Design the sequence.
């Protein structure tokens, strides 16, 4: 027996309008994630800056964010703005420590403004309460190292 056209249309409408729910194995990407950090820059334009940032998911493995910092340096009071993408190799916290790469652009402010590309590598540790520690090193105008405390999410980075 062939179902009627009306029955097929009704079945299609019900299937397309039924509420969807995440399967237990799926972990949705965390919302906005804040961080606080301390960074040191080497070279002629050395600086030590305290900073803060925020990032949003761009998918399972990548977060896009902005970081700002301010502190003393070779030019007196210095500042910076970074726009970065962070690619993690362990987005689901399968391991306690997870490596990641960072790429983006940076603008540093002092006696003069300098812009540069940013390329860093880092490792993020296990959650300590509501935050997770991270250590980074790389290049962005000069050699730079950073320590960060990021908002920690259960089962996601």
Sequence:
């Amino acid at each position: 027996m062939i179902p009627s056209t009306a029955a097929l249309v009704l079945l299609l409408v019900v299937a397309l309008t039924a509420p969807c729910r995440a399967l237990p194995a799926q972990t949705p990407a965390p919302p906005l994630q804040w961080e606080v950090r301390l960074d040191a820059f080497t070279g002629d334009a050395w600086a030590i800056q305290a900073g803060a940032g925020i990032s949003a998911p761009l998918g399972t493995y990548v977060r896009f964010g902005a970081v700002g910092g301010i502190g003393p340096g070779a030019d007196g009071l210095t500042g910076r703005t970074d726009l970065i993408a962070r690619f993690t190799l362990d987005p689901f916290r399968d391991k306690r420590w997870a490596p990641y790469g960072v790429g983006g652009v940076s603008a540093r402010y002092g006696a003069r403004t300098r812009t540069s590309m940013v390329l860093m590598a880092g490792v993020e540790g296990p959650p300590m309460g509501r935050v997770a520690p991270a250590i980074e090193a790389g290049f962005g105008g000069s050699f730079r190292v950073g320590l960060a405390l990021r908002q920690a999410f259960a089962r996601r980075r």
